[in-house]
Amino acid sequence: EPTVRTELMEQIPPIAIFLQESRPKFPTAFVEYLMPIVVRYLTDVNNQVRKAGQEALLILLEQGLIAQSDIENKVCPILLDLSAPDSDDEYKVEAVNIICKMASMLSRTTVEHMLLPRFCELCSDGKLFQVRKICAANFGDICNAVGQEATERLLIPKFFELCSDSVWGMRKACAECFMAVSYTTSPEVRRSKLSPLFISLISDTCRWVRQAAFQSLGPFISTFANPSSAGLYIREDGTLSIRPSAQDVNSNSCQPCNSTTLMSSNTNTT
To answer: Where is the signal peptide (predicted)?
Structure first.
């Protein structure tokens, strides 16, 4: 019954955590018994079972419970098979979604050598716009996962393709992640390549694309600033933030004292 397999998958992460904490007693139990189940259920015929397997996989990766060798030899190959050009449409959409989500949890070397080539292929998938849209929506995360050199060499050409896609939703997704892509590139690439590209999005024929581009205008401009002098930086969740200066910190630390003094002064006056 699919419901039984779904319930089983939901129990895998807590069991894996228990085995990790009791590793001396169960040194190979996870690799021998649980890991094969997780990998097998990624290709289950039932959609709910696959979804439960994908969620379990992401939790295991996030908790660091899967060994690097298992990631490269067991997880990545099955995802590459599922996202192959001749794969079933539903499986392909799910696979590219998992690839994008797990990229930030893997080593840069693993992402660049095993997943990046397939991601670049999927950005140009002419059969399924859903696949291209997932790639566009997660483009900034992939850039951040592989770093500046791979971004400028392999990803920027694909980003240009997506920014001129015939489907407006693709161009809108690109506009929304423009800051994250720009932040990963060199100042010269921002100026010579990304700036003209951004102007094309701000001048897009679709108002939804233009609106998304205008909302990203300030964050995009901020990537040209010197972080050490402007105090701008990118948080781990990809949002733009401002690091307070030492003067502001000192000013804020004195604020409660000033308020107390003012309150006591007012009390004495009355």
So the answer is: none
**Burial letters for 238-268: b for 16+ Cβ neighbours within 10 Å, e otherwise?**
eebeeeeeeeeeeeeeeeeeeeeeeeeeeee
How far is 238 from 66, CA to CA, in rounded Å? Answer: 25
Q: Give me the residue label for tokens 């807590």.
A: 14
DSSP per residue, 80-91: HHHTSTTS-HHH
Q: Is 234 helix (H, G, I), strand (E, B) or coil?
A: strand
What is the arithmetic mean of pLDDT over 224-238?
56
Which residues lie closer than 8 Å to 162 by C-beta, 6 or more apart?
Answer: 123, 132, 135, 136, 139, 170, 171, 173, 174
Are the C-beta atoms of residues 171 and 163 closer than 8 Å to each other? yes
Find tokens 């050490």 and name the residue.
228
pLDDT digits (tens, 9 = 90+) for 255-270: 444 433 333 334 444 3
- Note the residue count of the chain: 270
- Give CA–CA dist 49/44, Å, rounded: 6
CB atoms within 10 A of CB 28: 9
Q: What are phi and psi of 126, to 5 degrees?
A: -85, -5
Within 13 Å, how many C-alpha atoms sit on residue 29's CB side? 14
Record the tokens describing residue 223, joined without a space.
């990537």
Domain extent listing, the chain: 1-66
Q: How many CB atoms lie within 10 A of CB 68?
A: 11
H or E stretch at 241: strand 240-242
Q: Which of 132, 142, 204 is nearest to 162 (CA)?
A: 132
CA 138 – CA 191 distance, rounded (Å):
23
**Is this model's pTM higher than 0.85 or not?**
no
